[in-house]
Design goal:
The structure holds two protein chains of two kinds. In chain A, about 40% of the residues lie in helices and about 10% in strands. By secondary structure, chain A is an alpha+beta fold. In chain A, helix 12 packs across helix 13. The chains are: A alpha+beta, B alpha+beta.
């Protein structure tokens, strides 16, 4: 115990205090020196920042100059080679398809970047005699029903009116006829130039966008009774038309200026909002004022959205699948639009057409994708949903025996037009009129849907569809609209849309995805009116950059049949 | 039958023609119905989902009397107990650009006759078949005249039944659902009468009642039920009852003469200013008046002949209604005595145009009125005087002086009620203004009559 007290006497508080102060001083000095050193290091780095180069990536370019930027596409950003536009059928080497890579060894499913590879491949090859005959007959519709005065083609037979949707079908037919060597360049140029000139001169709906319907003989805007008047504009029709303007511009650069000048008359301020929803317009019956209403449901909405995106717009919300629901039909989860028709007063028709157009014209790819091969679909969920649309129709055929290729189509006599749907209004295989009456007698195998399925899904089932449809034609008027499901024979109507899509399907067999990459650098569409406020007022976009790309998404995948 | 065949053929015809649809159907002239006017409470106009270049932009849909319905501007409609409008459907089709419509369901067709009555036709029915109405539990037999234009009782019976059964020799031949019969037939009448709510059945849920006039709230069967006795032919005939062509010609002639009378009346009215207040009638006016009288007599004779030849018309005793007569006379207080025939024409026009009486009834009313007043050619204004208890003798003493004497007294507040003849006693609530107006009326209307026709 005494020894312990001696030791405690040796530890005086003074020594402890000195030690503490020394430690504090030491730590303070160390942290000061570290801070000074770090500051010197950071200052040193700041001095090494690369200066902003005018027009470079870090340059916040003013609107005046932004038009000269190149559009950022996948090939530009990632340095990958662009897809190549295939030659016309008559210019293809005989072994063209033998050397064609089809990616048959690539497994189906989503990639890490949400691209999708389908289980079935598209048909590829030269047209057979039967197919070539069908192409000639389908083209004959446009020879028969194009008005010389305006260059516009009638929507339905010899009734002289049309919409932008059907005019796009005419452009599809024209491109296909040229690429399949049914017509030569002089006729192609003459028809296309006359058409574009007429469209540029069309009187717009209230100085905004083209009216829903035009008289094909006079080019005057008309109402649904083909009397002079105005209805409004359709964002879906305009979206499809934009797709085909882009296809023509990319394929035939010498038409670019003409095409740009058509669009540079239009005013897009009310067609797309800040969130990227598409809006159509109609006239209020009582007040006569313009009413803008969201337009498009799952299927059509995304297709039209891509049309806008191909011209630099950013339809972010319109391109998304949500809100969507699924209905289990023959073991397939069929996606349909989740917006309640009772609230939004717009039906959610599930038909084949918009998926076919996306697949054949755009390759189920995102608008900025100009590099991936045909069997890789960068807009993955669109291809996966399309697979379901195909599968449920094949399943119906296998389970019930009904050949099924459903689409909207005209019919002969009242009600003149039906939505022959896979699912709508809560019912599968619902055939309804534009006002919603159930008319099962008008259910039909749609010729355009059958040929479209045949082109994109090389399967035993689409072979059957092909046999049912390929001889369904009148040599004087074109391909018939379809074949009634309940045995009433052919749907004896001839339309621009049906014949245009059939020609697109046949062209897809020869050339694959119809949209080809843009080969130029800048576009008048992006550089015009830079010294004025017109671009701002009309909502003209700047060349899209990588940050503007539509996102590649995926949704829950159905991997096996759902029973 | 021809008309029905044409109507039935309309959809088929629409399917022929050019290489495309018969898009000419979608013209402004073909729009016979305004889909913005609701057919019943809760019905609403909606926009059609058009993708193509033509079609009807709107339609109307709703639920009434237990059936869902939709109709287009061209009148095409469907009525069904199912909201999909797919089963048990009454379909209404209209002849292009007209309001000639019919409703059909399987073998049952309902049309509206020109008289506004419903008539049904059934496929496969022959003479001797019997008809039964079923309401789900029991059946009642109905006479064969169910295939004739329906009276109100028969119509109500059909509307309240579920099925119409046809039996032949005790065996059932066909069974026709009547669900939606009431709604479909009401719709037929509604569009035929320019979407007038007055023709809809009793207790129909008429929308937006605040804007409906009091007269329209009550069911007005008279608007669609002809007052004329209906043929009650028992025999089954395949043809649809059509109006007698001879009757139609006669009616046309009468219409033409009536138009002449109206023209003359217009001429006379235009010349009123020339002799108003003068009290004399020039030769030209007398000549025209004579023409009017001749035409009226001719008209009366023809109507009388028609009545005798055809049927006895149950004419309501409108002449006994002083309000009507006075209103007729008072409708144009500026009419002067020399225009007595003109006044009769005016009354005729009033009865036809304003009160909605058919021509024969109106003429009969005038004849009865004349017969009640005087049998000679004396002006009807005398009759008015009688109804007002003003004897010619009193008039002869000078109504003018009487009135001139009384007005100052009244204005001075010293109106002695006892000094007036009993027939011209005014109501206690009559104001000074009213009295003055009435005096003016007498001065302008009665005095010239008395001057022109001095008491015998």
């Amino acid at each position: 115990m005494p020894q312990q007290s001696k030791r405690s006497k040796g530890r005086s508080p003074l020594i402890g205090g000195i030690l503490l102060c020394s430690a504090i001083l030491l730590l303070s000095g160390a942290s000061y020196s570290v801070g000074i050193t770090a500051r010197q290091v950071f200052l040193q780095q700041e001095e090494e920042i690369v200066p902003i180069i005018a027009g470079g990536a870090l340059d916040d370019i003013p609107a005046l100059m932004r038009g000269n930027l190149p559009s950022a596409t996948l090939s530009l950003v990632e340095g990958r080679p662009k897809r190549v536009k295939p030659p016309r059928m008559c210019e293809m080497p005989a072994d063209f398809f033998e050397r064609l890579e089809r990616g048959t060894s690539v497994p189906a499913g989503y990639s890490p970047h949400n691209a999708y590879v389908r289980k079935y491949r598209a048909r590829r090859g030269f047209l057979t005699d039967r197919e070539l005959r069908a192409a000639k007959v389908a083209w004959h519709y446009f020879e028969q029903f194009t008005q010389e005065t305006t260059g516009l083609a009638n929507s339905v037979g010899n009734y002289p009116s049309t919409t932008l949707w059907d005019t796009a079908s005419y452009m599809a037919g024209l491109v296909a006829a040229y690429e399949l060597c049914l017509i030569e360049k002089p006729e192609f140029d003459q028809r296309m130039t006359r058409l574009l000139t007429t469209i540029k001169g069309l009187e717009l709906f209230r100085m905004e966008l083209p009216n829903k319907v035009y008289h094909t003989k006079t080019g005057a805007k008309v109402d649904y009774t083909n009397k002079p008047g105005e209805i409004g504009f359709s964002a879906l029709d305009i979206g499809r038309f934009l797709v085909w303007l882009r296809i023509c511009k990319n394929r035939y650069p010498y038409l670019a200026n003409t095409i740009d000048s058509v669009l540079l008359k239009w005013d897009f301020r009310n067609a797309i909002d800040e969130e990227g929803l598409l809006f159509g317009a109609y006239v209020d019956k009582d007040t006569g004022e313009t009413v803008y209403a969201q337009e498009g449901r799952l299927g059509y909405e995304e297709y039209a959205a891509k049309g806008f995106a191909l011209w630099g717009f950013r339809p972010l919300l319109a391109h998304r699948a949500e809100p969507f629901l699924t209905a289990s039909i023959f073991g397939v989860q069929v996606p349909y639009d989740g917006r309640d028709p009772r609230v939004f007063h717009s039906q959610n028709y599930v038909v084949t057409e918009s998926y076919l157009q996306d697949g054949m014209e755009l390759g189920f790819d995102l608008p900025h994708d100009d590099a991936t091969p045909d069997w890789v679909h960068s807009d993955g969920w669109r291809a996966e949903f399309a697979d379901r649309i195909y599968q449920v129709q094949e399943n119906r055929w296998r389970r019930t025996g009904f050949m099924t290729a459903r689409s909207e189509h005209n019919v002969k006599g009242p009600p003149y037009f039906t939505y022959d749907t896979i699912f709508s209004d809560g019912y599968p295989w619902n055939t309804v009129t534009p006002r919603g009456d159930y008319v099962p007698d008008h259910a039909a195998v749609s010729a355009k849907a059958a040929l479209g399925l045949w082109a994109l899904w090389e399967s035993e089932y689409t072979d059957v569809l092909f046999e049912a449809i390929i001889e369904l034609y009148d040599p004087e008027n074109g391909m018939y609209e379809g074949l009634y499901e309940r045995g009433q024979g052919r749907v004896e109507i001839f339309t621009a849309n049906n014949n245009g899509i059939i020609l697109t399907a046949l062209l897809h067999k020869v050339q694959g995805t119809i949209l080809t990459p843009y080969l130029g650098e800048t576009e008048v569409w992006y550089t015009a009116f830079r010294d004025q406020d017109i671009r701002l007022r009309r909502n003209y976009p700047d060349p899209p950059q990588k940050r503007d790309w539509l996102p590649a998404l995926r949704h829950s995948v159905q991997e096996k049949a759902d029973f | 039958m021809i008309a029905l065949n044409v109507m039935n053929a309309a959809p088929a015809m629409a399917q022929t023609g050019d290489g495309g649809a018969r898009t000419a159907e979608f013209t402004a002239e073909s729009a016979i119905v305004d889909t913005a006017i609701p057919f019943a409470i809760g019905a609403s106009e909606a926009r059609q989902s058009l993708r193509g270049a033509f079609g009807w932009p709107t339609f109307q849909e709703g639920l009434v009397e237990g059936v869902y319905f939709r109709f287009d501007p061209d009148g095409y409609a469907r009525f069904s107990p199912n909201p999909r409008l797919d089963v048990d459907v009454f379909e209404v089709l209209c002849k292009a650009r007209t309001k000639e419509c019919h409703a059909r369901k399987a073998g049952l067709t309902v049309i509206l006759t020109p008289r506004g009555q419903l008539q049904i036709t059934l496929e496969g029915v022959i003479g001797g078949d019997s008809f039964f109405l079923s309401e789900g539990v029991s059946e009642i037999q109905v006479p064969e005249r169910v295939l004739q234009p329906l009276d109100v009782q028969m119509e109500n019976l059909l509307a309240s039944s579920l099925e119409l059964v046809v039996r032949r020799g005790g065996e059932e031949v066909s069974r026709h659902s009547l669900r939606g019969f009431l709604a479909a037939t009401a719709y037929l009448r509604w569009i035929t009468n320019n979407q007038d709510y007055a023709v809809l059945p009793r207790d129909w849920p008429v929308p937006n009642g605040r804007q409906v006039t009091a007269g329209q709230r009550a069911t007005q069967n008279a608007n669609w039920q002809s007052p004329m006795p209906q043929p009650q032919v028992i025999a089954i005939t395949p043809s649809i009852a059509t109006p007698n062509p001879v009757m139609g010609l006669e009616a046309d002639r009468i219409d033409a003469q009536l138009q002449d009378l109206r023209d003359l009346l217009q001429q006379l009215r235009s010349g009123d200013d020339q002799y108003r207040g003068v009290g004399a009638v020039d030769a030209e006016t007398q000549h025209q008046t004579a023409r009017v009288e001749e035409l009226l007599l001719d008209l009366s004779a023809q109507v009388q002949g028609l009545q005798e030849a055809k049927t006895i018309v149950p004419v309501p005793d409108l002449a006994a209604q002083p309000d009507l007569t006075v209103a007729t006379m008072g409708s144009d207080p500026m009419l002067l005595a020399p225009q007595t025939t003109n006044s009769a024409t005016d009354k005729l026009a009033y009865l036809v145009e304003e009160l909605g009486l058919d021509l024969r009834s109106a003429v009969a009313v005038l004849e009865l009125a004349e017969a009640g007043g005087q049998r000679d050619a004396s002006p009807p204004a005398d009759g008015m005087l009688e109804r007002l208890n003003l004897s010619p003798g009193l008039a002869a003493q000078g109504v003018d002086s009487l009135l001139n004497a009384e007005i100052p007294q009244f204005e001075a507040g010293g109106f002695a009620e006892s000094s007036l003849p009993p027939g011209v006693r005014t109501a206690a609530s009559t104001t000074v203004t009213d009295y003055l107006l009435l005096s003016d009326y007498f001065r302008s209307a009665a005095l010239p009559v008395l001057l022109a026709n001095p008491p015998r």
